[in-house]
Structure to design on (551 residues):
């Protein structure tokens, strides 16, 4: 491949993989069974220049490869409220990756697709921080943190450096995070605890592999998804073991691979409260927008929104934006859930994300979200003030047009 | 000064800009201007163009590789980078910048004792093999 027998684009990909192997001191390359590529999001002319160069010689991916979000919603381009040239370049980058033979999923939650769930111990190359932490932690497959360019280089060559989280030793928990005994049981049964806890974990661990102790066993995937996405926003978390819930952590001893941790810390109720407060940056009670589906909502999550909305409709002054993957949307359109959500006043956004693309109307009031990741990035990226709340509170606020939030459970009424 | 581990090859010289905190280039560097735009960063507004960027780490955002490559294309990138820890993401960004635009931005990992001797404004040269020399302020 390096010599160019498979074409100049493939040779370029191999040079990048070899450089990565040198940088990470990998003794050899490993074959992978699949990839998830984040490079299809436009970050400037260099994004387009790279895919154009990579494609030379009819380059194809060597393994089944899904695509992360791009710059625009290709199915609903009318939602774009920005510069037309930027939209054209965003589209060209996305089409370029499709041209390599990648599946045009354009979702940040590829693990919601039934056939993109690699198994325990399977070697893969994934980009997108929340997808990386999910595939490593929840599915137990193995990927390092692959960033732009390297994720697609791995997909094209079918190879990754044998280093980092591809190896068992690097997956051992070095840090134990114990949930404080002052955290009430009622909170453990609240969905909104998990993104807040994830944000605390990210701050505490950085890139260290941690094991979290003290949560109920067998946590549902939606909670692990929210926890991981938050941890990968506030820290460089690529793998977190949730003891009793994730496959490499049936017990704390298993997560530690029978070794000793370097450190053990307690996460207190006060710290969780303080993180919850920090996720809210907006002030005032008028709600201009509500954003759900970061990471992209699963079909079950869409059903959940519908059940919470019931017969209610969101206020005319509120833009209710729900992000999901296009394959999930197709299913929701077939079942009628999509029509129900639209009747309630929701806009369904696919292929992209409402904090990276100019989608929201001029927001008159705060933007509410149930996602710690959205709350973390949106103020800097699109300049909105955010109120973080539960999914139910976000939807109740969308209907009321003002912030509806119950602080009682957090003891802060 | 001890030679550092080379994450991206090349030679460069320029005035050092030493960051007090790690910077994620994604969301932290505007490749159109070369300025720091992270509002939480203590050196908000500082220009990195043409300088030797010195920081403990890259804070690892996976899109930082694209921002570095775009800054190299636009001619706004630092001419060299000295880090306190390995950063695969920046290494790949520099590799792509070289592949696409023929510009080398050397990246070297330096031990903490050597790295912390460097002050903003020092004349710093990165040589082949990861050698780093520090001259008087310019």
């Amino acid at each position: 491949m390096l010599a160019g027998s498979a074409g100049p684009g493939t040779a370029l990909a191999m040079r990048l993989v070899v450089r990565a192997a040198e940088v990470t001191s990998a003794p050899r390359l490993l074959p992978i069974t699949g990839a998830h590529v984040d490079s299809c999001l436009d970050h400037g002319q260099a994004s387009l220049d790279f895919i154009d160069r990579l494609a030379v010689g009819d380059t194809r991916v060597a393994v089944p490869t899904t695509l992360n979000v791009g710059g625009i919603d290709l199915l609903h381009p009318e939602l774009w409220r920005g510069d037309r040239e930027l939209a054209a370049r965003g589209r060209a980058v996305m089409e370029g990756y499709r041209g390599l033979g990648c599946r045009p999923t354009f979702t940040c939650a590829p693990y919601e697709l039934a056939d993109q769930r690699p198994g325990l111990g399977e070697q893969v190359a994934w980009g997108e921080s929340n997808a990386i932490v999910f595939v490593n932690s929840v599915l137990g497959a193995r990927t390092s943190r692959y960033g732009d360019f390297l994720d697609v280089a791995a997909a094209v060559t079918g190879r990754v450096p044998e280093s980092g989280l591809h190896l068992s030793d690097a997956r051992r928990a070095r840090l134990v995070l114990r949930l404080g005994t002052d955290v009430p049981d009622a909170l453990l049964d609240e969905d909104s605890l998990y993104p807040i806890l994830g944000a605390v974990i990210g701050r505490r661990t950085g890139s260290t592999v941690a094991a979290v102790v003290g949560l109920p066993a067998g946590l549902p995937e939606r909670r692990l998804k929210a926890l991981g996405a938050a941890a990968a926003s506030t820290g460089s978390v690529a793998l977190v073991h949730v003891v009793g819930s994730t496959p490499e952590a049936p017990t704390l001893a298993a997560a530690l691979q029978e070794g000793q941790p370097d450190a053990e810390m307690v996460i207190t109720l006060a710290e969780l409260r303080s993180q919850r407060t920090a996720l809210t940056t907006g002030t005032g009670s008028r709600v201009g927008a509500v954003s759900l589906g970061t990471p992209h909502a699963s079909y079950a999550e869409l059903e959940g929104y519908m059940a919470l909305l019931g017969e209610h409709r969101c206020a005319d002054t509120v833009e209710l934006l729900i992000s999901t993957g296009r394959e999930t949307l197709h299913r929701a359109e077939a079942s009628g859930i999509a029509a129900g959500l639209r009747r309630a006043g929701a806009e369904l956004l696919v292929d992209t994300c409402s904090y990276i693309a100019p989608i929201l109307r001029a927001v008159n009031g705060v933007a509410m979200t149930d996602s710690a990741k959205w709350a973390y990035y949106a103020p800097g990226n699109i300049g909105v003030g955010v109120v973080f709340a539960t999914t139910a509170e976000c939807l109740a606020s969308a209907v009321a047009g003002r912030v509806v939030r119950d602080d009682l459970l957090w003891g802060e009424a | 000064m001890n030679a550092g581990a080379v994450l991206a090859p090349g030679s460069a010289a320029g005035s050092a800009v030493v960051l007090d905190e790690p910077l994620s280039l994604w969301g932290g560097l505007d490749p159109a201007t070369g300025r720091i735009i992270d509002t939480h960063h203590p050196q908000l507004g500082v220009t990195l163009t043409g300088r030797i960027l010195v920081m403990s780490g890259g804070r690892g955002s996976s899109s930082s590789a694209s921002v570095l490559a775009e800054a190299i294309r636009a001619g706004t990138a630092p001419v060299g980078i000295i880090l306190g820890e390995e950063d695969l993401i920046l290494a790949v960004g520099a590799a792509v910048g070289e592949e696409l635009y023929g510009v080398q931005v050397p990246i070297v990992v330096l031990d903490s004792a050597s790295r912390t001797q460097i002050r903003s404004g020092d004349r710093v040269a990165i040589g082949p093999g990861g050698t780093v020399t520090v001259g008087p302020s310019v």
About this structure: The domain at 8-166 of chain A is CATH 3.30.499.10 (Aconitase; domain 3). The mean pLDDT of chain A is 95. The first helix of chain A runs from residue 8 to 23.
